[in-house]
Amino acid sequence: MLDRVDVLVVDDSAMMRAIMREVLRPFGVRRIVEADNADQAWEILKQTPAPDLVFIDWIMPDPDGLAFINKVRKAPDSPNPYIPLIVVTGHTEVWRVEQARDAGASSVLCKPVAPKKVLEHINRVIFEPQPFVRGGDYFGPDRRRREMPEWPFEERRASKQKGAEVEGGEGEPA
Amino acid sequence: VSDPAQPNPAQRRLMMVTKGSTGVTAGMLAKAEAALSKLAETYPPMARQEVEEVAEAVAQGDAERVFQLMHVVKGQAATLGQPIIGRLAASLCELARETERLDKSIAVPHVAAMKAALSHGEDAVANEVVEELEALVLKARGPRVDPRQKPALKRKKP
Fold first, then answer.
1. For the complex shown, is ipTM > 0.95?
2. pTM to 2 decimal places
């Protein structure tokens, strides 16, 4: 049930925030916190109760969505480096989706936003999460997600990730 | 790699509070669709304002501003049942982002088509017109380049 899942929506467009609100409320999400910039979102992450899940726009005034993701994943004072971060973007090009994934996004929701698609992404990040990996400059969900139509880049990534460190001890090498 | 059998703290909490399911039913999905449809009714006035702003930015040759405005419109319009405006905005966004100088001879017809769609409904703009404008942008833009192979363009929204 989503009634106890706190969601943070970060978008500088009031209309896009309204869209997410209108989609999430009927799903039973009771607490939807909104931020119109990444700095405000960072402060909200530090609050109690903290959000459990974040939808974040990519293109925003500095810092943009990817800079926020980088900070959440890597900053020593990050309140929750493991929080699921779903990037909501109008970008649909493969290299841009890859860019979001390389920043540590849990999932990339390409616009147009549709309730069914939002639900798919929620299901994916909550119930089919990727293990976290640390390798080189990267920390975040394992980018070798399988059976994920919007992540069609497994072979290239697999070779790049070979030899990444083990986070938490077990599991297959990244 | 973290052990998938040992969820991280964020995951543990989500599994606990959801009790293993989102609980979203077909009825809930239908309600969300209906809520979006209702929201879509409020969108045209806002889109009109944004298109007026972009017309001004095009007149000034301000590619950055055109990109910012159209990037927002393309996502909103496509989501709120205005696919033609969404496509025109995406095309103009591409023109502003990928060409060195904003070509007004291509940008102005985009704006005119968006205005027509907002004033007379999306059916007032033929698909062929949109396709022709998209083709003009593709021609002006040239081959798509992955910017990770060159310095990335820094974009800001207003």
1. no
2. 0.82
